[in-house]
Amino acid sequence: MNDPIRDAELMMTRRQLFGRTACGVGTAALGRLLAASGLGGLAGMAAAMDQQAHHGLPGIPNFAPKAKRVIFLFMSGGPSHLDLWDYKPKLRDMFNADLPDQVRRGQRVTTMTSGQARFPIAPSVFDFKKYDNGGDGIYVSELLPHTASVVKELCVVKSMWTEAINHDPATTFLQTGSQIPGRPSMGSWLSYGLGSLNENLPTYVVLHSKVSTGKPNQAVYPRLWGSGFLPSEYQGVAFRSQGDAVLYLQDPDGMDRGTRRKMLDAVEALNHQSLDHFNDPEIAARIKQYELAYQLQASVPDLMDLSKESAETMELYGKDAHEPGTFAANCLLARRMVQRGVRFIQIFHRGWDLHSNLTPDIKGQAKDVDQGCAALIKDLKRQGLLDETLVVWAGEFGRTVYCQGPLTKENYGRDHHPRAFTIWMAGGGVKPGVYGQTDDYGYNIVDKDGKIIDPSVEEFTPGAVHIHDLQATILNQLGIDHTKLTFHYQGREFRLTDVNGHVVKDLLK
Amino acid sequence: MKPSIPLLLVGSGVLGWGALAQTPAKPKAEISFDRDVMPILSQKCYKCHGPDAAKAAAGLRLDQFSSVVATHAVVVGKPSASKIIQRVSDKDADVRMPPSDSGVKPLTTAQIEILKQWISSGAKYEKHWSFVTPTMPALPKVSNPLWCKNPLDRFVLAKLDAAGMKPEAEADRETLAMRAAQTLTGLPPDPGQVIAFVNDKQPGAYERFVDKLLASPAYGEQEARYWLDAVRYGDTHGLQLDNERGVYPYRDWVVSAFNRDLPFDKFVQWQLAGDLLPKPTTEQLVATGYVRMNLTSNEGGAIAEEFLARNTFDRVDTTGTALLGLTVQCARCHDHKYDPIAQKDYYGLYAFFNSTKDDPLDGNVTYPPPVVRAATPEQEAKISSMDRAIDAVLAKVNPDTAVQAFTANNKPIPATKNWQISPVYSAPSFDAAFDQVSAAEPGGAGEKGWKPFAFEIGKDFANIIGKDNASVYIRGTIVMDKAETIGFGVSSDDAVKVWLNGKLIHSHKIGRGIDQGIDRVTGDFKAGENEIVIKVINGISTDGLNLRLYDPRDKELGDKVIAYQKNPSSAVALREMRIAYLAVGPDETSRKEYQRLMKAKAEFESSIPMSLIAQEMEKPRQTYILKRGLYDQLGDKVTRHVPGFLGTLAPAAQVNRLGLAQWMTSSTNPLFARVFVNRVWQQHFGTGLVKTSEDFGSQGEWPVNQPLLDALAVSFIKSGWSVKALNRMIVTSATFRQSSRISKEKLAKDPENRLVSRGPRFRLDAEVIRDKALWASGLLVHEVGGKGFKPYQPDGIWENASDPASSTHIYVREHDTGIYRRSMYLFWKRTAPPPAMVNLDAPLRDTCIVRRSTTNTPLQALTTENETGFLEASRVMAQRMLLGPGNDDMRIQRAFGLVIGRSASAKEMTILKTALSGFQQRYANDEAAAKKLVMVGDAPQTPNQRVSDQAAWMLLCSTLMNTDEFLTVH
Question: What is the distance between the alpha carbons of residues A316 and B538, in angstroms, rounded to a whole number?
Answer without folding.
Answer: 42
